[in-house]
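Journal club prep — side note

Before the paper discussion, L.F. wants everyone to see what a predicted structure for a comparable chain looks like in token form. Sequence:
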Amino acid sequence: MKFLVGYNGSDVSKAALSLARTYADLFGAEVLVVTSMVGGFSEKPEEIGKATKDLDYAEKFFQEKNIPCKALQLARGMSPGEDLVIFAEENNVDQIFVGIEKKSKTQKIILGSNAQYIILKAPCPVVSVNRL
């Protein structure tokens, strides 16, 4: 069994990480923790450094329970939602865990909703977490 966690280091993504660890421990699953960035000139070096540090934290979080985990940083020129859905298809993921944050209607129009995209387009069940 293979789980995917969309992770950006936020509190809600940490909640998704925690729930995924509980499920992975119960079901003997491997976990893929993924941060998706657009890539190119759109990210600053400090954002890339933060993502690397966040993924290191996630990997250690699973190692504490001896759960197989790979932490990956993607930069494939897509929105994070689209990137995670395609990654899940490419890697035969059985379940996706994402943290969701409440956004105003204006924020959704401007920024879109990656979690909504994942929930609607994912090739497998999606668990959404909104707090710790």
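L.F.'s comment for the group: The beta strands are 2-6, 30-37, 69-75, 95-99, 126-129. Keep this in mind when we get to the figures.
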